[in-house]
Amino acid sequence: DTEVTQTPKHLVMGMTNKKSLKCEQHMGHRAMYWYKQKAKKPPELMFVYSYEKLSINESVPSRFSPECPNSSLLNLHLHALQPEDSALYLCASSQEALAGADEQFFGPGTRLTVL
Amino acid sequence: GEDVEQSLFLSVREGDSSVINCTYTDSSSTYLYWYKQEPGAGLQLLTYIFSNMDMKQDQRLTVLLNKKDKHLSLRIADTQTGDSAIYFCAELPELMTTDSWGKFQFGAGTQVVVTP
After folding, report:
1. Tens-digit pLDDT profile for residues A30-40
2. What's the Cα-to-Cα distance from B35 to each of A22, A103, A112, rounded to whole Å?
3. What 3-state DSSP class applies to B14?
4. What is the β-pairing status of strands A110-114 and A10-13?
5. At A75, is the secondary structure helix, strand, or coil?
């Protein structure tokens, strides 16, 4: 299994809602990532988890809360989002969180719309 | 703006070769990646090259690296309509630091449109 899966594919939420995005991989990878991608822009790194510990938080607002319950799962909890948070949220994983040495495998993304 | 730069658009006829260009910034050891993104989908790794190499070929894909000019190109031979997508080049340093750990420098992406 060389896939990163993400659910849901699409999500529409209001600014007062609480929702979660889920990501799963069964490749035995120990590093997992959340990216945010706006239309026609490259992905921007949000969080890096290495061995289930948060290693990098790229100054992301606290309305985004990541969680790594185990080595195969990565969640992104959303609360009180703003319309400008509407984007494609991509999850990725790699063997280790080493700079350059490991390929990152990307999931298909969750298309989030905040009303 | 991004430190990794790409031209934004390329139109190519089916069957012709496509060449997508990218310039990068890090002059030390670095990995350079090409990703493909189809509409509404995630990123698909096409190929990558380490900065001590000049060229890498993989079926229809040829990556050329000019280290002196920090110029990277991806050539797609016999371009097909299924190659229509956005192509991102990305740079990731070999040496891990707190700043670089897992952190790609992506280019803005080149939209490739293949016409019949």
Report:
1. 999 999 999 88
2. 23, 11, 22
3. coil
4. parallel
5. strand
Query: How many residues would you count in chain A?
Result: 115
> Does residue A69 contact residue A76 with C-beta atoms inside 8 Å?
no
Provide the mean pLDDT of chain B.
Answer: 89
Question: Is A43 exposed, middle or buried (CB count within 10 Å of its CB: 0-12, 13-18, 19+)?
Answer: buried
Whether the Cβ atoms of residue A70 and residue A63 lie closer than 8 Å to each other: no
Q: Mark out chain A residues that contact chain B at CB-CB < 8 A.
A: 4, 6, 31, 33, 40-43, 45, 48, 50, 55-56, 58, 88, 90, 92, 94, 97-101, 103-109, 111
Q: Classify residue A45 by burial, with Cβ atoms within 10 Å: 0-12, 13-18, 19+.
A: buried
Closest by CA to B92, choosing from B60, B54, B49, B52, is B49
Task: Say how many C-beta atoms besides its own lie within 10 A of residue A77's C-beta.
Answer: 13
Beta strands in A14-63 (DSSP E): 18-25, 31-37, 44-50, 53-57
Per-residue model confidence as pLDDT tens digits over B21-76: 999 887 677 889 999 999 888 899 999 998 889 999 999 999 999 988 999 999 99
Cα R_g (chain A), whole angstroms: 13
